[in-house]
Each structure stands twice: as structure tokens, then as C-alpha cells.
Design brief:
Elements lengths: L7 H15 L8 H5 L7 H10 L5 H5 L12 H16 L3 H9 L1 H18 L14 H30 L6 H13 L22 H29 L11 H26 L10 H23 L6 H18 L7 H16 L3
Helix pairs in contact: 1-5, 3-5, 3-14, 5-6, 5-8, 6-7, 7-13, 8-13, 8-14, 9-14, 10-11, 11-12, 12-13
Protein name: Tricarballylate utilization 4Fe-4S protein TcuB
Keywords: Membrane, Transmembrane, Transmembrane helix
Organism: Falsigemmobacter intermedius
Length: 355
């Protein structure tokens, strides 16, 4: 079955209605208990279910209605296409997301090279140390809008998604349960806790869950390292570079290693998995995004290893190029899925208590 159709919602609705009648997969993940609340499925409900889905694929490998059955079910792909469509509809302009997922590697590579080239051309003699290559004021002036503008676009998209899917006033308990689920990657463990079937078909594996945890916690550690370094610069007049046992390095080095290891494992698993059980049209863009995550962390680690050598200027420009590319692509790459999935988990808590 082709999912390159103008009405993804109609196909997802057909499949979910069959699932709702069968209910064999009711305990598999958060999607199926949520599905049983309804008999008819609005577009907003389908978007909500799609963003609850983590594409673990256990339902497909257990389903009696997959091809060659006449029902022709492929629920992971149907929900993956609706999920991708929800991001593209709500985060504007959608054309950027479509372009990135159609030509992800080329766009990502070109942006990294152009931005790195700009930094090479703009290198200056700043305040000494780290900023003898690129002045602190230059970096702040460039990276602050590159970070805040994409977040603003994501926030507008989330507001639209929240309204479509029936989100209401947030309670502390909603946040507590949603963040606990994210912290444990609960839905990637499956309803039974043995993992998912993403890369091993009818066998369970925790590999994808652990890889996502490594990338998530690695990213948070790196973000914390950058935040601490900013406070040290402004409050303590301690500019970079920092020593091995400084707070930025104690946070950033483990964070970078986790991102590299988790990202490489995600690439390996994605290459093993069946692309027909996901949103096939965005496979390239998703792979480009994971490669970009690995490049961000790997260039950061390489930059630290090269401290005091003639490679610092080129490596710093390359690292800054990857970081700014990651920021600029945030609303249109798969990185946006974290914001939407967290929102879906919060909304699900509200729906479970009948809010």
C-alpha cells in the first residue's frame, strides 16, 4: 500500500477503526488504551494517537490483518505518516520540513559547510583563549537568534497542535507523569517492559530505548555544560577554554560521548529496520538528522582533544557550523518530535483523568 496519498487521515482512520474493533494489541503501548476511549476518530484524535506512537512496531508483527490479508493493515506506517503530517502542518512554513526530508543529507551538509566557512572567514582576535578565534560578542549575536527563533516557531506549532488535540489547563500531576515517562522512555519499553520490535521483528529488544536515552541524556548534559560555561563567563569572568576537571568539561565530555554512542547505535538500528513500517518518504531526512547529532558531539569532542594545536580554528568553525545547523533545522527535522511527544503525553494524562 502506498502512503503517498492526499488523505493520510482517512487511511489512518480506517486502520484504527479496525484495531479498535479487534483490540488484540490493547496492552502493547500507550496508543491502544487511548484508542479504546473513542468509537469515532476525529483528525485531532488521530494526531494525538500518532504522537503517542513511538513506532516500536510490535503491533504490526503481532497483527493478523497485515498483508496479504484484505484489511491490509500497517498501523506503524499509518501513524508515522499522520505524525509527520502533524509536525509539518503545525510548524510553519511546512515547505522547509518537506524539503529537508526529501533532501536531508544534501541540505544538512551544505548548511554545515556554508556556516563553517562563514566562521572561518569571520575569525577574529577577541578576548584571548577560546575567544581569540571567534569573539564572544560575535557568537552571542549569531547564536542567540538562531536558537530562539526556531524555538518560537516550535512554540507556535505546539499551540496549534494543543488546540487540535484537545489539550486543556495543565496540572502539576500531568507534568510529573509525562516527564517520568520521558525520563524512562517508557513507551519504548513496550507494554510488557521487554522492549520493542523495531529492528528484530518478532524478537524484543531494548536497544532502541537505550540508544534514545543515551542521546537524550547526552544532549541534556551538553546543554548543561554550555549553560554553566555561560554563567562562568558572565558571573565569574572565567572565559573558555576550561580544564578537564571544570564543570563544563565534567558535564560536556560524558554528554558528547553519550550522544556519539547513542547516535551511532540509532543509525545502525535504523539501517536494520524495515523502512516500510515507518514514514518512508522522510527516511532520508530522519537519517540526516541523526548523522547531524553525531557530528555535533563528535566535532565538540575533537575540538577539546585538539586544544593547543593548529587544528583548533578549523575544528571550532566546523563544530559551530554543526551546532547552528542543528538549531536552524530544529522546527523541521525530527528533533521537533520531542516537543510534540511530550505534549501528547501531557494531553494523554489529561484525557485519562477526564479533563
Amino acid at each position: 500500500m502506498s502512503f503517498e496519498t492526499p488523505d493520510l487521515m482517512a487511511e489512518a482512520r480506517r486502520q484504527i477503526e479496525i484495531c479498535n474493533a479487534c483490540r488484540y494489541c490493547e496492552g502493547f503501548c500507550a496508543v491502544f488504551p487511548a484508542m479504546t476511549r473513542d468509537k469515532a476518530f476525529s483528525d485531532g484524535t488521530l494526531s494525538h494517537l500518532a504522537n503517542l506512537c513511538h513506532n516500536c512496531r510490535g503491533c504490526s508483527y503481532s497483527c493478523q490483518y497485515v498483508p496479504p490479508h484484505e484489511f491490509d493493515l500497517n498501523v506503524p506506517a499509518a501513524l508515522a505518516n499522520v505524525r509527520q503530517d502533524s509536525w509539518e502542518r503545525h510548524v510553519k512554513p511546512a515547505a522547509f520540513a518537506k524539503a529537508f526530508h526529501a533532501h536531508g543529507v544534501a541540505i544538512m551538509g551544505l548548511m554545515v559547510l556554508l556556516i563553517a566557512g562563514f566562521f572561518m572567514a569571520a575569525k577574529s582576535g577577541g578576548e584571548g583563549g577560546f575567544y581569540a578565534v571567534f569573539s564572544h560578542n560575535t557568537l552571542v549575536a549569531l547564536f542567540l537568534p538562531a536558537f530562539l527563533l526556531p524555538l518560537f516557531l516550535v512554540a507556535l506549532g505546539l499551540r496549534s497542535y494543543w488546540r487540535e488535540t484537545g489539550g486543556s489547563c495543565i496540572r502539576l500531576s500531568d507534568l510529573k507523569e509525562a516527564f517520568a515517562s520521558v525520563a524512562k522512555m517508557k513507551n519504548l519499553a513496550g507494554g510488557h517492559g521487554e522492549g520493542c520490535n523495531f529492528e528484530k521483528e518478532d524478537r524484543y529488544s531494548q536497544g532502541r530505548r537505550f540508544a534514545h536515552q543515551a542521546v537524550m541524556y547526552g544532549f541534556l548534559l551538553c546543554f548543561a555544560a554550555t549553560s554553566v560555561a555561560t554563567l562562568m563567563h558572565y558571573l565569574l569572568a572565567m572565559p573558555a577554554p576550561y580544564g578537564l576537571f571544570s564543570a563544563p568539561k565534567l558535564l560536556g565530555i560524558p554528554g558528547g560521548l553519550l550522544m556519539v554512542l547513542g547516535g551511532v547505535e540509532m543509525i545502525r538500528l535504523k539501517l536494520k529496520a524495515d523502512p516500510s513500517l515507518g514514514a518512508a518518504r522522510v527516511w532520508g531526512g530522519e537519517m540526516a538528522f541523526v548523522v547531524l547529532l553525531v557530528l555535533v558531539s563528535a566535532t565538540g569532542l575533537a575540538l577539546y582533544a585538539a586544544t593547543g594545536t593548529g587544528l583548533v580554528t578549523a575544528l571550532l568553525a566546523l563544530h559551530l557550523g554543526t551546532v547552528m545547523t542543528l538549531f536552524l533545522l530544529l522546527p523541521y527535522s525530527k528533533m521537533v518530535h520531542g516537543f510534540f511527544r511530550l505534549s501528547a503525553l501531557i494531553i494523554e494524562e489529561q484525557k485519562k483523568r477526564g479533563a
